[in-house]
């Protein structure tokens, strides 16, 4: 089957397959991909936790640096992917190829720039990210190798998203999963076998990312509708404008997540390395749980893009409500489990450290209270982003870790001590949900009106 035939088959699948079946078919590989992506850092936190509390805190500090890499990759990847899915839905394949190739090579170049700047300013960078004097040596050793992998990390996110938005989520899953499994296998070898400690964790992560990158690139050539041909790159403002328009909500979300992590480390710092380590563990655990939700929502994104581009607004609405219902139920079950087994979860990472367990257990339980509300907010944000509502999507994506969390983390600890650190994220989640409700109602009403107009025009054309 040549590329044109593959694209015709994919188009038919995306606009004709029943919504529950289509979303689930695309969601299962993306859920696995997101969970495995979280495992990269979960594995490092688990094995580095065997070294000591300061080493565990170092992984949390460098996590905000990796969030910057992710911000660049997600911005370009989701911006490119959104546009590619709409172009493919409108049957404009040549334009889709130019967008995809331009996004991929731009992300790799951006990763090179981040690598060079980070290595030059590594010590002041670690201090800005929240490293204490005891954490700094571990953070420096970990970050040095992570920075070397920056070009592969940023461009891997683009490849992953491009495959997903073309409806080839299974191919994306293979590349991500292979890297995650390899990382779990290499961590104990480099950390304990070679005695490299935190540097070993970073080396294992970077090697795994490079393998994942290589597989994803191969999958684009083998299974994607679009191949990463450098001759298709077009350095045009029109392309970058549309990519940034679709990707900026992800940029705001990821950068604010990085800033939020820095502020969290700084706010927890006065309460000791145990507080930084505990909040780092809770952040990783919640990110792991959220990744399942985000992966499920990402099964909705190509469905949304294709059908919106094809004028099938009814299918966009049906897919949205299906995702909200399933996600909310799933998050409720996860939240209940988190409330019941919080001490055991924290103990997996720092068993025997009573201070870390005590702080982390309460923080995890507090965050689980409002966790089910994220089913609505994340699915709504994906809908806004995929249909080109960049302004609304940017506001909502900035709310959780920026508009609400930053003021809370900067003020609550002053009045409530370490409890203020623990309360900041759950209060932010509640405020974000309250903001998102009227935004969602207005957008769904607009989609319904578009659907009615489309049906009326179709009846007119047929008559």
Strand/helix succession: HHHHHHHHHHHHHHHH
Helix content: over 70%
Shape: globular
Q: Which class do the helix and strand fractions yield?
A: mainly alpha
* Number of separate domains: 1
Radius of gyration from CA coordinates = 22 Å
Number of strands: 0
Tell me the number of helical segments per DSSP (H or I, 4 or more residues long): 16
SSE arrangement:
Elements: H1 3-16, H2 19-48, H3 53-89, H4 93-120, H5 122-128, H6 136-148, H7 150-165, H8 169-193, H9 197-222, H10 237-268, H11 273-309, H12 313-350, H13 354-369, H14 374-386, H15 390-416, H16 418-462
Helix pairs in contact: 2-3, 2-8, 2-9, 2-11, 2-12, 3-4, 3-6, 3-7, 3-10, 3-11, 4-7, 5-6, 6-9, 7-8, 7-9, 8-9, 10-11, 10-15, 11-12, 11-13, 11-14, 12-13, 12-14, 12-16, 13-16, 14-15, 14-16, 15-16
Describe the structure.
- The chain crosses the membrane at residues 21-43, 55-78, 99-122, 142-163, 170-194, 200-221, 255-282, 288-308, 320-342, 362-383, 403-421.
- This is Multidrug export protein MepA.
- Belongs to the multi antimicrobial extrusion (MATE) (TC 2.A.66.1) family. MepA subfamily.
- It holds the Pfam family MatE.
- One of its GO terms (cellular component) is plasma membrane.
- The protein has 463 residues and is mostly helical.
- It has one domain (18-462).
- Helices cover 87% and strands 0% of the residues.
- It has helices at residues 3-16, 19-48, 53-89, 93-120, 122-128, 136-148, 150-165, 169-193, 197-222, 237-268, 273-309, 313-350, 354-369, 374-386, 390-416, 418-462.
């Amino acid at each position: 089957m040549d590329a044109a035939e593959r694209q015709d088959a994919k188009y038919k699948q995306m606009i004709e397959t029943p919504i529950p079946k289509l979303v689930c078919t695309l969601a299962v590989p993306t859920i696995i991909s997101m969970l495995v992506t979280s495992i990269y850092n979960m594995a490092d936190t688990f094995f580095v936790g065997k070294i000591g509390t300061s080493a565990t805190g170092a992984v949390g500090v460098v996590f905000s640096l990796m969030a910057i890499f992710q911000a660049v990759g997600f911005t370009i990847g989701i911006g490119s992917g959104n546009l590619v899915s709409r172009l493919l839905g409108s049957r404009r394949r040549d334009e889709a190829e130019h967008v995809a190739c331009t996004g991929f090579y731009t992300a790799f170049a951006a990763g090179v720039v981040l690598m060079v700047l980070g290595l030059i300013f590594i010590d002041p960078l670690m201090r800005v990210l929240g490293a204490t004097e005891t954490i700094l040596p571990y953070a420096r050793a970990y970050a040095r190798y992570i920075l070397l992998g920056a070009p592969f990390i940023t461009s891997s996110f683009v490849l992953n998203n491009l495959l997903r938005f073309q409806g080839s989520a299974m191919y994306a899953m293979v590349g991500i999963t292979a890297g995650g499994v390899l990382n779990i296998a290499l961590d104990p070898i480099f950390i304990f076998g070679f005695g490299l400690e935190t540097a070993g964790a970073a080396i294992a992560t970077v090697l795994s990312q490079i393998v994942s990158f290589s597989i994803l690139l191969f999958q684009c050539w083998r299974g994607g509708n679009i191949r990463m041909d450098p001759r298709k790159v077009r350095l045009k403002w029109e392309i970058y404008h549309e990519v940034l328009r679709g990707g900026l909500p992800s940029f705001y979300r990821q950068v604010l997540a990085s800033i939020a992590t820095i502020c969290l480390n700084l706010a927890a710092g006065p309460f000791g390395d145990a507080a930084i380590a505990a909040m780092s563990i809770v952040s990783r655990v919640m990110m792991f749980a959220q990744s399942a939700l985000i992966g499920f929502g990402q099964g909705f994104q190509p469905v949304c893009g294709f059908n919106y581009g094809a004028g099938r607004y009814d299918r966009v609405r049906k897919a949205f409500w299906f995702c909200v219902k399933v996600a909310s139920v799933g998050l409720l079950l996860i939240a209940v489990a988190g409330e019941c087994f919080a001490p055991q979860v924290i103990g997996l990472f720092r068993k025997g450290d009573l201070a870390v367990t005590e702080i982390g257990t309460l923080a995890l339980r507090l965050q689980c209270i409002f966790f089910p509300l994220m089913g609505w907010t994340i699915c709504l944000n994906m809908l806004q982003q995929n249909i080109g509502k960049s302004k609304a999507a940017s506001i909502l994506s900035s709310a959780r870790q920026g508009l609400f969390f930053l003021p809370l983390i900067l003020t609550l600890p002053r009045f409530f001590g370490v409890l203020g650190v623990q309360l900041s994220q759950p209060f932010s989640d509640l405020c974000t949900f309250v903001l998102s409700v009227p935004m969602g109602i207005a957008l769904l009403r607009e989609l319904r009106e578009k659907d009615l107009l489309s049906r009326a025009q179709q009846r007119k054309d047929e008559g």
